[in-house]
Amino acid sequence: MAEEKSLNFLEEIIENDLKSGRYRSIVTRFPPEPNGYLHMGHATSICLNFGLTKKYGGYTNLRFDDTNPTTEETEFVQSIKDDVRWLGFEWKNELYASDYFEELYLFAIKLIRKGCAYVDDSDSETIAAEKGTPTQAGVNSKFRDRSVEENLQLFEDMKAGKFKDGERVLRAKIDMAHPNMLMRDPLMYRIKHAHHHRTGDKWCIYPMYDFAHGQSDSIEHITHSICTLEFVPHRELYDWFIEQLDIFPSHQYEFARRNLSYTVMSKRKLLQLVNEKHVEGWDDPRMPTISAFRRRGYTAAAIRDFCDRVGIAKRENVADLSLLEFCVREDLNKIALRRMVVFDPLKIVLTNYTNENELVSVEDNPEDTNGGFRDVPFSKELYIEQEDFIENPPKKFFRLFPGGMVRLKGAYIIKCDEVIKDDTGKIIQLNCSYIPESKSGNDTSNIKVKGTLHWVSVEHAVTAEVRLYDRLFKAEDPSNEEGNFKDYINEDSLQIISTVYGEPALKNAVAEERYQFLRKGYFTLDKDSSEEKMIFNRTVTLKDTWAREVKKV
RNA sequence: UGCCUGAUAGUAUAAGGGUAGUACGUCAGAUUUUGGUUCUGAAUGUCUUGGUUCGAAUCCAGGUCGGGCAACCA
User: Fold this and answer.
1) Residue nearest to nucleotide B35 (CA to C1')
2) How far is the CA of A32 from the C1' of B72 (A)?
3) What domains appear along chain A, each with residue ranges and CATH number?
4) Nearest-CA residue relative to C1' of B6
5) Which member of A20, A212, A435, A551 lies 3.0 to 4.6 Å from A207 by CB, making a disulfide possible if both were Cys?
6) From CA A529, how far away is CA A539, in angstroms rounded?
7) pLDDT, tens digit, 9 for 90 and up, residues A504-553
8) Which residues of chain A (80-109) touch nucleic strand B at CB < 7 A?
9) Which is nearest to A296 in space by CA: A325, A262, A263, A266?
């Protein structure tokens, strides 16, 4: 009997709502602002919102929170849709806060009529000053007590474009002494003579987040409006507008934003990394954006699994990058095709080898019992990794050394007989002998070796470029370190090896397919690849217990 | 000297008055034609002080520490 997975606090709320009959099914929404690319934090929100309706019945809308025309662009709308789809979720309706501009405008008029809103002529400095501070009450604006008629007229003039940016705002009339600063006559509308990515030049007044989000939720009958912790103080305002307007009572629930170790997650900081060219773009594989993870070779399943395993709660957190890496390795181990690729070649010559055109058969994926095999050409001259040979090996080193034996994966056991160096003492070639009766699958040699190496035939090798990525930051939580987060950028986060040597099957690599370069890590073809040149991104390394062993010394 | 909010192994998350559990990470071992995978085992935790109770991570009171709130951003 499988243990029942415990519920997170939102699932509990929903189950109670369903049980009590408050709702028969639920509606959630994912509400990104189209002013940047989605990142891992959004992935958590996406998995949460879509996951909840999948689990409990109902649906999820995709709603773009596009109330600020000066920062928002269609480019981002497209990338967001791509990312949500790629993550494996389908929204019920594609919506925009701008779809509701007319309705929102009517809501504003309703509040003016009720005496709950007024037009303020003060400039932003004055309004800010009059707002007071967290420990000090604000004071009323001198425009606070205008008549309903005057307010109506002024608001219409605002809409009609009779004022310049910043000359007037519409504010809710609540309480300038309220302990919650958001309740001190918050702005509802501001004037922006700006082109909107969807409504064009139709409007020159735009609703503020607080006057758009809750009402949009309400219009869509969102039952559970889930957002991050920084909006907790907004909930009071959210409820106030809904109550004053007497519209469908959506409810807001807050959870803690998801952070990831060794990176930053705020859009502002990510934008800086892009603009200041610390990375190549939003989908630079070192970025924590969804498009970057995709390009790097992460699978949607792995990301979903990660979000699932981390869970959600209400306390601030920094999730371990190693958990994400575990999730992607676990998925990739099952699906990646194995290939042999030598990064840093050391030539070996099998002095006693005389066969011609020999092929050895190697499994594509040992985890897959139905998996296929491929033929790999074997020959007298092979490449192995430089690091797989040490002249004076440390203890527990079971790769190749003078007089030592190793198996070449899928082929024969070889013995190192002679080390050849150039004038500078650099090792340039190994002369080895192979054990003919040790062929894989047909081994009658009775020789036991500890090490198995990957290799490629010199004559048959195909070349490619590999890009090896490391964490973008040296600090676990760069935002919380002393000084600027950029001081902690890892200068070695990208290592390019322009020529590596792969077995011929590598030539058939296709986009989207995942590969495990034996003993090297998981790789996928990068979009920069061309007919002439294959470029592979390292998605993640293999777990390397030997590297850890070496480090200990 | 305001308001809101949070605190469980290194990290993340359970336990909702009754054995503090799970995952990742760490360490040790077994298996292995990838030093991968798989398997086994171990170490490590309830912010603090009181109170209620047969019994408290859980309820109550005080304290400590962290986060958010003074954008015509979302």
Assistant:
1) A546
2) 21
3) 19-255 (3.40.50.620), 267-337+464-552 (2.40.240.10), 341-454 (2.40.240.10)
4) A315
5) A212
6) 16
7) 999 999 999 999 999 999 999 999 999 999 999 999 999 999 998 888 76
8) none
9) A325
